[in-house]
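so my prof wants the structure for this chain in the tokens format not the other one, which i didnt know existed until like an hour ago. anyway here's the sequence
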Amino acid sequence: MNETASSPVVLDLWCELQCPDCHRAQADVRALRERYGDALEIRLRHFPLEKHKHAYAAAQAAEEAYAQGGGDAYVAAVLARTEELGTRGEELLEEVAGDLGLDAEEFGTALIDGRHLLAVDADQAEGKALGVTGTPTYVIDGQRLDGGKSQEGLRERIEEIADRLLGR
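here's what i got, hopefully its the right format
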């Protein structure tokens, strides 16, 4: 067994939960997970944009969902309702948590006490340092692929890089 097979290739996905483009990117993320399984680690990285007033709270809520063990399902559920998030904000974030069987009350507390602020701020700062300006943006093997304007061909490019790194 070679080195590469034992440690997964990492794909960082800079995302914002009120972003319609990030919602559309979920199909590519699902396809990548199906194709690579554990060989590709897809890490959600937060990059809330100022133009979306509930994105920062949504990023914190996602961190709480991961802390409660339901992060991926929570992120997908919130992304499916980006427009509604724009109008309902934190009420929707807590409702989705409850719908998924997570502790919705704890979500409210987490948003008030700010326990996940540092994680969100650290992701955003790292993204800015890497040149991320919009979402979704992918970083794999040091290459930044910007999906904020168009996602056309991005999954294929990610697959080419992942295949090369995995020796496929």
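also thought this was worth mentioning. The first strand starts at residue 9 and ends at 15.
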